[in-house]
Write a structure and sequence with these properties.
Layout lengths: L1 H17 L2 H7 L7 E5 L2 E5 L5 E3 L1 H11 L3 E2 L3 H9 L11 E7 L5 E6 L5 E5 L4 E3 L2 E3 L3
Antiparallel strand pairs: 1-2, 2-9, 3-8, 4-9, 5-6, 6-7
Length: 137
Amino acid sequence: MKKYCFFIFTVCLFIINKTDANNLTTAFPKPSHSKIYKSSQGQFEVGDKDLGTMNWLDARKACMEVGKGWRLPTKEELNLIYFNKNKMGVFVKDNYWSDDEGYSFDVAWCQNFDTGEQNSFPKINKNQTRPVRSINQ
């Protein structure tokens, strides 16, 4: 009986090791925490995680690399995200980039997710990045 149980156990281990890992991940997809909001420019979806801390140009590029239509949020969208942040998962108490440039060519607007203040910062600063994309209506 012990040999029979050992044989079954060995066969099960062999099958598990030969299983395609991609099939397991598609059978149990990672839940998405993205949310949809409406601004004066229309509806937009907010990504479910930050892309990291980076300068403004790298932040714009990183958002576009997420996929078709992903971008940095506008000042207005970022403000809506801030006021709904508790419904959306984890946000760092730090500045987040917006796509809106400031009053000169070398600054862009950010929103502080601790205080809620919006300020312009030099584009070379490193701030948090959260992508959004517009939803066609």
